[in-house]
Amino acid sequence: MSGLSCSEMEGCRSLLGLLDNEEIQALCDTVTNRLVQPADRQDAIRAILVYSQSVEELLKRRKVHREVIFKYLATQGLIVSPATEKHNLIQHAKDYWKRQSQPKLKEAPESVTKTEDLQLFQQQGKEDKKAEKVDFRRLGEEFCHWFFELLNSQNPFLGPPQDEWGPQHFWHDVKLRFYYNTSEQNVVDYHGAELVSLRLLSLVKEEFLFLSPNLDSRGLKCASSPHGLVMIGVAGTVHRGNNCLGIFEQIFGLIRCPFVENTWKIKFINLRIVGNSSLAPGTVLEPAIAFQQSDLEAFYNVISLCGNNEGSVNVRQPLDSGTRDQALGGGNDALLSRREMNFPTL
Fold first, then answer.
1. Residue 266: which of 184, 181, 146 has the closest Cα?
2. pTM for the complete prediction?
3. Confidence band of 201 (pLDDT split at 50, 70, 90)
4. Which of 10, 53, 128, 284 is most buried, by CB atoms within 10 Å?
């Protein structure tokens, strides 16, 4: 039984109508695992709709190109930026179909003149503004789902990628600080969207790693600054094939893109990977973030005060048995000594 609502099914039917016959047949084979042999094009579209578990599952498939979703939205009178990424186009389509499924509003009521009615409208306006505030915990969860699914899908052992990975997901001056403690301790900085994108890609495409985030309350922390910077801290385990190699901690700094609706890009990343061999004897793998929201706030306060070019936050990293600390940054030492965030001892 299809997991699509009536409005989603009709919308997807129209959207699939923009694909050619070969694409429809290939998509039908993928969705049904070649267990259904459609008699014609319409029969294939019907099978695709019936056997799709959700609208996201269907639209995220590689055979449903970003351009097709964009063209469909244009035919429906929905104007979005041509640079909008696929996952945002999918959200636009879902929102549109949701509105289509809602009952039509009655004609506008007569003009409000009574004082009590005006007060009621003003109160509703305030509540609407409150509702517009971003739920950063939910944003963190959705971002991590998107980021790690997209990155891990680039692993050649997991089949074809679900979507395109590249520098378009980062601000052009993004910074990556990569700390890894396996057979030896290393800290490397990468600057620029192209270089950061390629370094992260190499983790899964060339080193065949799989990063599994822990998105419960212990593994995910979120905070925001008054200037709009959103901090997301996440912990998880690192795998290669059937082997668990160690744990990771990662902090993202996100800034909303002012030119594309509901789009956030990555401003900086601090990634720390610790291999099993570097953990103290008897240590149990527990992918959890020990720092609190105040630690994240201190983190972005340092970044804001130091500036992008003058230095970066001094992050303490527990090494070996957890008895030594290594500073992962430079800049104004007097300032950083006042704003130092401690990662948990692993």
1. 146
2. 0.52
3. very high
4. 10
Q: Indicate if the pLDDT at residue 126 is higher than 80.
A: no
Q: Please tell me the distance from the alpha carbon of residue 248 to that of residue 236, in angstroms, as a whole number.
A: 5
More confident residue, 283 or 83: 83
Q: How far apart are CA 73 and CA 212, in angstroms?
A: 34
What pLDDT does 144 receive?
A: 93
pLDDT band at residue 81 under the 50/70/90 scheme: confident
- Taking the C-alpha atoms of residue 257 and residue 236, their distance in angstroms, rounded to an integer, is 27
Give the dihedral of Cα atoms 212, 216, 217, 221; nearest 10 deg.
Answer: 40
Distance CA 72, CA 74 (A): 5
Residue 243, token pair as written in the block:
């082997």
Angle (nearest 5°) at CA 84 between 62 and 210: 50
Distances (CA, A) of 67 to 33, 83, 95, 127, 131: 25, 10, 18, 37, 32
Chain centroid offset of residue 221 CA: 14
d(CA 343, CA 338): 16
Q: Are strands 264-275 and 170-181 parallel, antiparallel or unpaired?
A: parallel
Give, as one character, the DSSP assignment of residue 216: S
**Beta carbons of 174 and 143 less than 8 angstroms apart:** no
Cβ 272 vs Cβ 251: under 8 Å: no
List of residues 6+ apart from 343 with CB closer than 8 A: 249, 272, 290, 291, 315, 316, 317, 318
